[in-house]
Amino acid sequence: MRETMPGGQPAEADALARFLTADPEKWPRLAPRVTAAVGIPALERIVHATNARIGEFGTVTDGPDGLIVSGSAGRVRAWAQADPDGRLTALRIEGARYTPPRRRLPAHLVWAVFLVLVAAWNVLILWTADDRTAWTADLATLAAFYVVVEGCGAPAMQPRPLRRAVEAGAVAALASAWRLPGLPAGADPSGLAVGLVLLAGAGWLVTAARLHRRPAPLSRPLRFPLEGAWYVVQGGGPAVNHHARVPEQRAALDLVALGRHGTRTRPGRELRAYAAYGRPVRSPCDGTVVSAADGIADQRPGEIRYQPPYGNHVFLDTGREIVKLAHLRPGSVTVSEGDTVRAGQLLGEVGNSGNSTEPHLHLHAERDGVGLDLAFEGVSGRLYRGRTVRG
């Protein structure tokens, strides 16, 4: 819960404004922990770069995307924490000018409408096909669509009504086969060739994404850190894992729990509506804690304010690789930097802090800044989007 000043401005915004407008010799008093951790020379470089982006300092305000530092030439986003005395205890300033995003329809709503419309359109085409060759070509095209949706999407995380509507489209399409005996054979095979190529391409895309393997495995399998059944929403090759473009996260997994309403246990945007929220996270290995954070607020589902990307987290050094667990619930982290932990030890709970739009656990391992393929004891096969893993 963020403390708010009498004027309605968060305490962090006022503390950050005082810090940015103060002379460097005052920083140890205004931000003792930040100054000790980063050092005045590094802070001077950060503040100088910020001033170069924003021009003459104006204000620090609180907005939907985080703290906004405004000046005569532009704005940047920031994240800060302050103690009851108004001293900064943590600080992060984005290294680029801030441009307010265009507010659009929620991505899940756009995706739902797209799926239903495409399915309905293809069903209509099948029911109006002029001959059997055209019908077969249209069916191959529709099958390619379903292969991509099922293989590259994460259908089980979607609400049940959407899943049933898309599945009903497949049933309605197949029902059009009763027309086949009354249709002519058809003479133009070009449409069928295109449909078969699309189907083969969809199958290849899904297979390649799910079987994708990198030449950098773990030194030994991890223990799965969660209890019960968990659904992989990011994992596998680049086509099914948005982490793949980040070198150290290229084989990361995002894990959610499923309820009757997809990833939620019931409709609603509150955090506890999600099946994963608050579930225990245990250490996947023996190791030493090299970084831990616990005081970062959860994001509101569907939104991301500017925060440290991993949010509340625990990073473990096994002596051979670094294992990172992120987006934990504030107040749940049980370990501190320097602690030695054993596999199976409680580390915290699943939350929604950092770059997270809904409660989930982010897990990856890296060696020398390169992401490693994950493997778990007792879990066979590849780890890819759409797979359910049981701990």
TrEMBL record:
Residues 275-371 form the M23ase beta-sheet core domain. GO terms for molecular function: hydrolase activity. It is an enzyme of class 3 (hydrolase). The chain crosses the membrane at residues 107-127, 192-211. InterPro entries: Cell_wall_metabolism_enzyme, Dup_hybrid_motif, M23ase_b-sheet_dom. Keywords: Hydrolase, Membrane, Transmembrane, Transmembrane helix. It holds the Pfam family Peptidase_M23. Its EC number is 3.4.-.-. This is M23 family metallopeptidase. It comes from Streptomyces sp. 900105755. The lineage of its organism: Bacteria, Bacillati, Actinomycetota, Actinomycetes, Kitasatosporales.
